[in-house]
Amino acid sequence: MFNYTIRRLIFTIPTLLFISFVIFFILDTAPNDPTGNLPLTIPPEVREQIRTSLGLDKPMFFRYLLWCQQFFVNEPLNMIEQWFNITIGDGERLRVQSWATRSPVVDLVVERMPQTLWVVGMSYVVGIIIAIPIGVISAYKQYSWFDQIGTFISMLGFSVPTFFTGLLMIVIFSVHLHWFPSIYDTTHQVTDWGSFVFQIKQMIMPVMVLAFFNAAQLSRFMRASMLDNLQQDYVRTARAKGMKERVVVLTHVLRNSLIPVVTVIALGVPQVFGGAIITEQIFKVNGLGQLLIIGIQGADIPLVQTLTFIFAVLIVLFNLIADILYGLLDPRIRYD
Fold this sequence. Notes:
Elements: H1 2-29, H2 44-53, H3 60-84, H4 105-140, H5 145-159, H6 162-176, H7 193-230, H8 233-240, H9 245-283, H10 288-297, H11 301-329
């Protein structure tokens, strides 16, 4: 397992480099102009000076190599200096900067990351906790009233878009019932019990909107996988040996059923961060999704490139985690 993990990590280096080049090339050839949002009264020569100051007069391949140096070398060194309070070299190194704010892009990501983890991360965990029991019970009690209701709710949650669910919850729970705030206060700090309660209240609606959507999808995969394994010969053999039904279902069937579901869960993590763009816009959550929208609207290419590449890194990373979990869930899988 260890050797397999090392080989996969080594293989991810050229993979991520190729992905970063494709992202850089596509965004560079897109018809985006950082001066497009400036007033029309600005003379063309001033616009050209602005483009030159941003380095757009240099060849694309040169700008890509400069971005690689900034992101893969300068940014990690800067993080090491901040973590250990040391200075490496002269401490003056070029970083990936946003065209709009002239701030380092990594600092903007680190600033927005806690809000995304609070809302999006929590919603994914809640969705998994809800989906797995529903999928297991629905498969074990196939065509029962629980299965029928679960199927209906799952199809509803998977079909209805998150922007509609979010607006519906705002109308019901914020406008009419006044239970929860409709806007997420990103400046709120938890200092006492009252502030903690307010933090939980403002998290409930965005978390449940995303959790409902995630649980609807995962519960369907869990149910299908459980139904497939419940018909296998090893289940009949275990029951014939006199094993308790709870042991058969929760130990043998559930473990084997989680193997394909793990792939969906692992590969769904990056998609949740990208898919939270709509939910963050509805509830005004100042997270990575909203940051990406701001970068796209303002033609902030370095910001969009970095965020898109981070999403790609998450996909490759969690794909590796899913492969490793295969070996833990299925003893028949050996990588060495």
